[in-house]
Structures are given as C-alpha cells and as structure tokens.
Design goal:
The chain has one domain. The chain has a 9-stranded mixed barrel. About 20% of the residues have low confidence. It is α+β, with helices and mostly antiparallel strands. About 30% of the residues are buried.
Length: about 260
C-alpha cells in the first residue's frame, strides 16, 4: 500500500494541488514591493526648494521660530531661474505676495499661520517625515506643523466631493510600477504654494515617482502641471535618508501653542 507521503506527491503532480500555486506566486510578488516605512530626513534640496536643508539628520535643538520668515524667503532677491515658470497672471500674484512679505507682513506666510505646507511643498520635509505603509495606503507625516497626507493604493479614485472640497494635502492615489510608487495628487487648495510662495490654481496636478536609489536612500521625482498658473511643467527631485535607530523619533510641532506663548 503506498505511503501517505507518496500519495500526496502523486496527487500534487496530478494537478490536485494547483490551488496552492496562486498563493505561492502572490507571496513572491508581494515580497518584491519595497517597504518605505521609517523616519526620513532630507539629504539635499533643489535651489528654491524651501527652508531647512538638512544633511540626513534631525533639526537642531532650537530651530527658528515658525512665526518668523527667513530673510532669504521674502522675495527680495527675486526669483530663482529654477523656480516654477509662472504665467503672467500668476506672476502678478507672486509680485503682490513678494511685496507683502518684504514689508514684513505674514498675510501670505502659511507657515506663520500654522497652516500645512501643502503638496508638493510638504515633501521638502525640512523637519523630517515618517512614512507608514500598509497594503492599501501609504501615509506621510511631516514634523513641520504636523502635516499629514495619505496615498491610497486600493484603486479608489477622487470623487466629485473631493474635487469640490480641496485641501492642503490634496487627494493622492497611487500604484506600483515595479519598485517605484507612482502617485497623482489633485484637489489641492489654491491658498497653498507650489514651492516657496509660488502660487497655483485649483487645476494643479502633482505627479510623483518615489523609489529607493540606494540602501535607506529614498528619491521623490516630482512633476507639477497647472494649465492656468504654469507656462510649462515644473520638475524637481527630493532625496531623503532613512534615520537610524535613536534618531527616528519626530516631535510634536505645536505651532499654535507657540504662537500663544509669544503673546
């Protein structure tokens, strides 16, 4: 009489174990998806990419007060050649903002108002960011003003209610192309900025390609399009290094609390 083990082998060869094949394949496929989870700090930033350039470590113990704009960010030096190419209408808006900031006003300084930095500016991550990843979504948490954005990976699309109610983080959906996370963000609040204080319209779309380019080194290639505000797409690259254990704890920003204490 054949042994049970032998029967099992014969049965599998006969096709009775084919139901196991998809399970094995699914496990192999899922293992190829990179895990971005962790805390990251910027390695480098493009010119005009915002404040807080870091070299892969946490910010200093006493960062500049969030209620004060850095002198170089007031527009007094004009626009960088690498800044978004604005249409005449939005260049005029930028000039209004520039004159206001040069006068010392906080009217157009979202950071001073404790407002989220918006997307793509949020991805400057001047004070570091934490990436939390599950099968259906990836969450980016910025220490600056405790800003938050979610990228949905389960196939959902923005509904009309999302498009009619824009937010600073917008509505982000994504999918994997091999080892690269491809993200599209829409429904972005027009009171946010592309970078620095370059304005945009409610038609702005931000597309990103995020991937590891080395051990613990995460790259975000950003392309911004806006038919009303931009003459041509604006592109930039952000790079982040994963923090080591002991340097991977973000702090509560408590911007509003800081404003209260200053009074």
């Amino acid at each position: 009489m054949p042994r049970p083990t032998a029967c099992l082998i014969v049965a599998c060869l006969a096709g009775l174990c084919t139901e196991l094949a998809p399970v094995v394949f699914a496990q192999s496929s899922s293992s190829a998806t990179p895990d971005f989870s962790g805390v990251y700090y910027p390695v480098q930033q493009g010119r005009g990419g915002g404040r807080g350039q870091r070299a892969g470590g946490p910010p200093p113990a006493t960062p500049a007060r969030p209620t004060q704009s850095a002198p170089v960010s007031d527009g007094s030096q004009g626009r960088s050649p690498e800044a978004p190419a604005l249409t005449p209408e939005y260049m005029a808006k930028w000039e209004v903002i520039r004159k206001s900031r040069m006068s010392g006003s906080y009217e157009y300084d979202n950071n001073a108002k404790c407002l989220p930095p918006g997307v793509p500016a949020m991805m400057n991550m001047a004070y570091g960011m934490e990436v939390m990843q599950t099968k259906d979504k990836i969450t980016f948490f910025s220490e600056l003003n405790d800003a938050l954005r979610r990228v949905y990976l389960d196939g959902r699309k923005p509904a009309q209610k999302h498009l009619d109610d824009p937010t600073y983080a917008g509505y982000s959906t994504g999918h994997w192309e091999g080892d690269t996370l491809v993200v599209e963000t829409v429904a972005l609040h027009a009171d946010s900025f592309i970078e620095g204080f370059s304005p945009h319209s409610d038609q702005m779309v931000v597309r990103e390609r995020i991937r590891f380019v080395g051990p613990g080194l995460l790259e975000d290639r950003i392309t911004v399009t806006d038919p009303k505000a931009l003459i041509k797409p604006w592109e930039t690259v952000r790079t982040y290094r994963k923090a080591s254990k002991g340097n991977d704890e973000l702090r509560e920003f408590a911007c509003a609390e800081g404003l209260t204490r200053e009074k």
